[in-house]
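Appendix B.2, paired examples.
Example (i):
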Amino acid sequence: MALLAFDVAGNACSAAVWSGGGVVSHESEEMERGQAERLAPMLESVMDRAALAFSQLKIIAVTVGPGSFTGIRIGLSMAKSLALATGCPLYGVTTFALQMAVLPPAVWRDGPVMIVLETKRDDFYVQMYGSSQQPLGPAAAVPSRALASYVTDLTDSKDALTLVGDGVKRALTRMDNNIGPRLYRQVSATPDAQDLARLVAAEAGSGRSPAPPNPFYLRPPDVRLSPSLQREAKG
């Protein structure tokens, strides 16, 4: 089974090819801008190094967010175009699900896990999971001032709390002295396209149907009208 996976929802552009039971080519480049120009050449590169033609692909996989609005749009647009051109099924995976896939099993023995993703604003994309790996509440864009109450509303104060994600460092500073004494543990795990390829290959191998490749936004994009359009909107 040949599978092409790519992730541009975060602060990197990454792509990987899965074939013959493993990842056979992979590229990743950190970037906050320029994904639109970088993604297509990167996909061609990993396919060339895997010695595969796009027509040989059986599955396309992409992250659907939450994350960068621009990155999500770029990734989904490319994924849908490739799926249409190749006739491959398209698997959409949330950033939370991808983050969970790279956590060691021991993480779940101590208590709840909170995935905290950076937004580069005064909030975080957050999802809390219990030890059974089921969500304790809906995913949300949580303002930094409300992060402590988000935790206490969903967990017992006696629980240890494991924090995961690229927003953990900033989140801990926001919660310091606002949540009472409890044990925190930070797990460093930054997944990318090769982890996405492994996850989707396992899902496809177990017979799971593709998840809809719909964008997963937790708040509206920041859109500002130009002064002329603002005047027109006011009539």
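Example (ii):
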Amino acid sequence: ALKAQLAELFGSWKAKQSYSRIPLSMKPVTGQKIELNTPDKATTFLLAVHPIALNDTAENYPAMIMADHMLGGGALRSRLADRIRQKEGLSYGVGSSLNVPEQDKSGFWIAYALNAPQNTAKVEAALREEVQKALTEGFTEAELAEAKKAWLQSAEVDRT
């Protein structure tokens, strides 16, 4: 059935060049802090990006999804949101996202925050502290159980 549909759509058309997938690659970079000053703006957008040599078939990919969810990907229920937005009231919005390709090991993790410019240093310090805490102490079983439940609910909503 699919062959018939393709034949109907494309007939005898042939590409002039053969297809060749361009693989994604990671290049080593040194960390740096870049500031773009916009003194006329009342909001600061803080963005942290960390490359990760990971694709979606990696053994630790599911664990990384859960770690991101618990740290900042779980919207208002995450360590970053609990501390930076709810507890300390330093940002209008804060979170993280894990971006991992299907084939190539060239993913990245980002964390972000929207805040008043006078809070940027405090937001950055809190973000660094929460990431370091997650790296050194890990997550609790209760956090993981809640994250699994929330992630599954989110996936179900996405499919509707």
